[in-house]
Amino acid sequence: MYLTNDTTDEKHQYAYASQMKIFSSIDGELLDVIIVSKEVLEAFSEKGYLYNLEDLLEKSPTLKDKISPYFISSSNNSIQDGLELSNCKIIKNAGYQESIYLGVISNTPRKQQIIDYLNYLFH
Q1: Which residues have C-beta within 8 Å of that of residue 122, sequence separation ≥ 6?
Q2: Which residues pair with 34 in a beta bridge?
Q3: Tens place of pLDDT for every residue, the chain, 123 residues?
Q4: φ and ψ at 76, to 5 degrees?
């Protein structure tokens, strides 16, 4: 999906339609995580769509200690709601050229599966 808030972008209508699909998936509790650029992560954070990772991992202290150095917060808040993935071996092997970030959607009902996924990413 293509996401931008730039109304002068030639793909703005496509980006708007993509945003509507994403927001519908969030409202329907169908989307659990996003893996995106920092710009997109901050946009989701500013709208309040992301879960505080410290709260999510409260009952998984070993995992929390392992990945907390990669926690980030958006520039507008102090909540640790993003996870920088560039040092993750699986992501490195996928060949991403730029830094990418993971955010957990705040209304997900599948918290344990997300914890399992984070364990998988950082094994």
Answers
A1: 63, 66, 67, 88
A2: 103
A3: 455 556 676 776 777 787 788 888 888 899 999 999 898 899 889 889 999 999 999 999 999 999 999 999 876 767 889 999 988 888 888 888 889 999 999 999 999 999 999 999 998
A4: -105, 0
Delimit the domains of the chain by residue range.
32-121
DSSP string covering 36-71, please? E-HHHHHHHHHTT-B--HHHHTTT-HHHHHHHGGGE
The pTM assigned to this predicted structure is: 0.84
Task: Outline where DSSP puts E strands in the chain.
Answer: 33-36, 71-72, 82-84, 101-104
Residue in the structure block whose two tokens are 């969030």? 26
CA distance 110 to 7: 35
